Amino acid sequence: MPTARPIRLPAADFHLRPLPVTTVHGLDTLRLHGASYPAIQFRLVTSHRFSHPDAPGGLLYLADDPETCLMECFGDAVLDPGSFISQTRWMNQRVSRIQSTDTFRLCDLTETKTRSALKVDLPSLLHPDLSIPQTWGLAIQTHPENADGLCFFSRFTNRRCLVLFDAGGRHLSKLKSTAQGGLAVHAQADRFLDENKIALV
User: Fold this and answer.
1) β-bridge partners, 62
2) Where are the alpha helices (DSSP H) in 93-141?
3) Which residues on adjacent β-strands are paired with residue 34?
4) CA-based, 20 to 30 A from 12: which of 37, 77, 96, 169?
5) What is the β-pairing status of strands 176-182 and 84-85?
6) Are strands 93-108 and 149-153 parallel, antiparallel or unpaired?
7) How many helices (H) and strands (E) does the chain have?
């Protein structure tokens, strides 16, 4: 009988321990969002991986490439045989480029040395029980170090994603969005449907 792996959560004194942060100069990322929402909007959606229900503010999820944006939004439909995507939902999505020339201090969970310092493993951060990664997200978001956000691996593409913390609205003026159009005008979106044999209904 296989032995269950331990579930690792932040230590009781997590807020007293140093939080490793990486300084990043400028951002150039992408965001997939509904047409009825602004491209830059910090929201608290508790079905998202690091968005704990008790978070002190909203979060903004970003990715480095179009495929990761698509997989983070529609990846479950790809993995479930015979599944489909609502055509209304698909056509409602917009792609925006999110950029900044400012400096951000991030807890980079894609770095082995950061995870080692925090005493967390990738399975805990990728756990299907969202309360586990969300507990880590809350601990980092509320740590006295006041990190601007965290980096993490997409569970679908294993590529880097970024989530920024609202921090009382202090990041809004740092970010600039440029509309890239709907999915219907993006060749990457067509390839995504074809390669994964996903039907729009």
Assistant:
1) 162
2) 112-118, 122-125, 131-141
3) 93
4) 169
5) unpaired
6) parallel
7) 6, 8
Q: How is residue 184 written in tokens? A: 């219907």
Q: Do residues 134 and 50 make contact, with C-beta atoms less than 8 angstroms apart?
A: yes
Instruction: For 105-143, write each residue's pLDDT tens digit.
Output: 999 999 999 999 999 999 999 999 999 999 999 999 999
Longest CA–CA separation in the chain, Å? 54
The whole-angstrom separation of Cα 171 and Cα 173 is 6
Residue that the structure tokens 């691996």 belong to: 153
pLDDT in tens, 58-68: 999 999 999 99
Element (H, E) at 151: strand 149-153
Tokens 């903004």, located at residue: 60
Is 97 in contact with 12 (CB distance < 8 Å)?
no
194 DSSP 8-state letter: H
Q: Using an 8 Å Cβ cutoff, are 186 and 180 in contact?
A: yes
pTM (predicted TM-score):
0.93
Query: Which of these, 117, 113, 114, 105, lies nearest to 162 by C-alpha position?
Result: 105
Smallest Cα–Cα separation from 60: which of 144, 156, 145, 137?
137
